[in-house]
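HOLO CASE FILE
Compound: magnesium ion
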Amino acid sequence: MTTVNRLRPRRSCLAVPGSNPRFLEKAQGLPADQVFLDLEDACAPLVKESARHHIVDALNNGDWGGKTRVVRVNDWTTHWTYRDVITVVEGAGQNLDCIMLPKVQDAEQVVALDLLLTQIEKTVGLEVGKIGIEAQIENAKGLVNVDAIAAASPRLETIIFGPADFMASINMKSLVVGEQPPGYGADAYHYILMRILMAARANDLQAIDGPYLQIRNQEGYREVARRSAALGFDGKWVLHPDQVAAANEIYSPAQEDYDHAELILDAYDWCTSEAGGAKGSAMLGDEMIDEASRKMALVIAGKGRAAGM
Ligand code: GLV
Ligand code: MG
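Model generated. Tokens follow.
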């Protein structure tokens, strides 16, 4: 089988308020690819301190069943960030995959987190580089600097679009997060999503779409998710258990596309092998396949394999 660079699956990224032990418990049983335990906007200032400890406890003693485990800390313009990182990584670094940094505005903010993580890893005896970084783009400055942000650290795994803060940051005339603002006849998010996707892909990172707040509107969620999935985004946030299945489905390839991608990979492996004549292209039914077809097939096969298809 041709090998696929298996990035962590992130079709569904479940937001869990770090201040609520009941939600921290419940999240463990949901079939989301990723959980992120939140110290930022889901935690009121007065409970941020206790939330750090709830999160350490949940990471160390919970059963997360192979999910990617992420903690979202507060952004660097607050006074909470360093203590969030130190408490969580010193307390539960062994049971943590990534730190999510919100409202990233420039590359230096990612570098600062990278340096802090390195010191903590050395101090507590974790492998240096173990903890990855997820960067949220949530304002105009972050978007303008997204290329440098995406290249700022080898720890980076994903760039995430934060639509709620972003809409506020650019004064977009809408209060419904992720929905099109009335009065504009085209897709108001196209430029932002593409800008994030290009920066991510140019640096071999994943691109993740953010939340959809109308949690009772399943069709609305699906419609917004289908748009970013069509562009190539790898997953989307889920704020409610009802959104998990939709994200897992929409960000997985269709079974038929996955089967076809595996056929292309097998056919290409065969035609380029000595036994197959060491050719650069071949016919698969009526379709000519070559190295470019292999690359396209690898993307679909990679996502399908990660989804256990
Ligand atoms: C997420 O953090 C958002 O602001 O949309
Ligand atoms: Mg935000």
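CASE NOTES: The two ends are 15 Å apart (CA to CA). Residues 6 and 291 are 20 Å apart (CA to CA).
CLOSED: yes
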